[in-house]
Amino acid sequence: MSDYVGSCLCGTVRFEIDGGFDSFYLCHCRHCQKDTGSAHAANLFSKSAKLTWLAGTESVSSFTLPGTRHNKSFCKRCGSALPGTQIAGLLVVPAGSLDTEISMLPTAHLFSASKAVWDDRLGEVPAFKGLPE
């Protein structure tokens, strides 16, 4: 039995992970902001966990930004972020790609100097359980 399972938005790609995570970082660098379209990326990292693709491997693609180590794996059908192994010896798993709940809190914020201006006061923004009426 695997420790974690995950999938893309359209369900074409499914995967499992055996093992635990060493760290969980929220990265605010400009590269992560651009490739997530949000304030930060939320990625789990492991040097020992094993990734197994269960379905849709033909739909998995990746992009490495030239001149950097910045890499993103994604589903070619829906664009969802997926786990990557492009950095030797390191599994990088987008937290939102997991269908299994994770209990660990983020280890740290990275590149906080690049934080989006609107990210600082999110605690003051109203929260709705669904779409507002």
UniProtKB/TrEMBL annotation:
Residue ranges annotated as coiled coil are none
| The protein's name | Aldehyde-activating protein
All copies of the CENP-V/GFA domain together span 4-119
Q: Which is an annotated GO molecular function term of this record?
A: carbon-sulfur lyase activity
Q: Which SUPFAM superfamilies match?
A: Mss4-like
Family recorded in the similarity comment? Belongs to the Gfa family.
Q: Could you tell me the keywords of this UniProt record?
A: Lyase, Metal-binding, Zinc
Residue stretches spanning the membrane: none
Q: Does the keyword Zinc apply?
A: yes
InterPro entries in the cross-refs: CENP-V/GFA (IPR006913), Mss4-like_sf (IPR011057)
